[in-house]
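R.M. (postdoc): so does anyone remember the format we settled on? I'll just put the structure tokens first.
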């Protein structure tokens, strides 16, 4: 297939997803039924995958797959203008922290003209397979270029693997002989000035609580000016108060609260979120860390020294990369690559056997 033909297939997939999310159905009843069943099944397998969170992920993908977004994304890359390039088989190992976290890699591999060989996390092995089935019904010529396996990856020419810092060491060794992208733990952070409006803080709350804070783009830490008053932030968080009724989230909240109380660790508590001063970036579920700063210039210097730990900086005023506005942490653009590594450029340099 030519590039435009591959893009057209994903445009149609995006049309389907937007209709499914906005109206609850599309013109394709069979695909509707497949996706409804996958959403239900995914929630049974992984209790963190609520229907609300799955639909949030599907909505974000549907927006990304709008035709203008796909063309803007691919326009600056040197795609071959013919169909004669031999495709490579790209093994993709996905994480399972939030729904469909591996979709962007799936998209990149297929748009680049290569074969996708996916080993999905057991915590999220239904949704991407279902979207792949719907894509094949739209464009059957992808058949043979999409393979899922539960076994060890074999027969690959390159690998994209996402995991934590421990698994990354294993991936680096195991895939050392082929071109690879290995992703590790990263976190989203937010920089506040203290002058944010209530509406801006509500958008920030979305970045904190979406997906229960389990995403690598989820805001796990705030940098706030000295003397910052958290009362306005807590007020902006009230729209998420029902999160405490999720059993697993509540367990984490109660456990961490007990640890703080028993050990007399100073913290703030609004009844569903614990806020603690801490120098670390990665906070536990139901906990948000914060750190004071005096000088924005020195803060920038500090953050520049830990860029490998940061997935994105969330702020309406921070003009340094990789920053996004409040409320956009979990809705990245196609060109917002995980860990700052250009996946599409990597793939376009590959050659098949």
């Amino acid at each position: 297939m030519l590039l435009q033909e591959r893009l057209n297939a994903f445009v149609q997939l995006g049309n389907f997803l937007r209709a499914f999310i906005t109206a609850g159905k599309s013109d394709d009843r069979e695909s509707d039924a497949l996706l409804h069943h996958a959403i239900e099944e995914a929630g049974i397998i992984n209790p963190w995958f609520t229907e609300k969170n799955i639909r949030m992920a599907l909505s974000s993908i549907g927006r990304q797959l709008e035709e203008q977004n796909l063309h803007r994304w691919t326009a600056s890359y040197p795609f071959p203008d013919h169909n004669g390039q031999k495709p490579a088989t790209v093994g993709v190992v996905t994480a399972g922290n939030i729904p469909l976290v591996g979709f962007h890699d799936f998209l990149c591999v297929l748009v680049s003209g290569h074969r996708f060989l996916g080993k999905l996390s057991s915590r999220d092995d239904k949704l991407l397979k279902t979207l792949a089935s719907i894509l094949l019904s739209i464009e059957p010529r992808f058949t043979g270029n999409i393979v899922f396996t539960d076994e060890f990856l074999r027969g690959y020419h390159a690998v994209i693997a996402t995991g934590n810092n421990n698994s990354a060491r294993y991936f680096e060794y195991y895939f050392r002989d082929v071109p690879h992208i290995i992703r590790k733990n990263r976190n989203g952070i937010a920089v506040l000035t203290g002058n944010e409006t209530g509406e801006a803080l509500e958008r920030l709350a979305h970045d904190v609580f979406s997906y229960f804070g389990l995403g690598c783009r989820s805001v796990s830490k705030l940098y706030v000016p000295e003397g910052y008053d958290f009362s306005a932030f807590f007020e902006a968080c009230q729209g998420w108060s029902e999160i405490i009724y999720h059993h697993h989230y509540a367990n984490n909240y109660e456990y961490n609260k007990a640890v703080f109380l028993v050990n007399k660790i100073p913290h703030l508590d609004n009844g569903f979120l614990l806020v603690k001063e801490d120098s670390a970036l990665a906070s536990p579920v139901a906990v948000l860390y914060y750190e004071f700063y005096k000088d924005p210039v020195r803060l920038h210097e500090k953050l520049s020294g830990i860029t490998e730990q940061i997935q994105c900086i969330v702020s309406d005023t921070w003009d340094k990369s990789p920053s996004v506005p409040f409320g956009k942490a979990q809705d990245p653009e196609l060109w917002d690559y995980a860990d700052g590594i250009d996946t599409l450029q990597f793939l376009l340099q590959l050659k098949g056997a």
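R.M.: ...and that's the designed sequence above, right after the tokens. Also worth knowing: Residues 104 and 212 are 21 Å apart (CA to CA). The mean pLDDT is 95.
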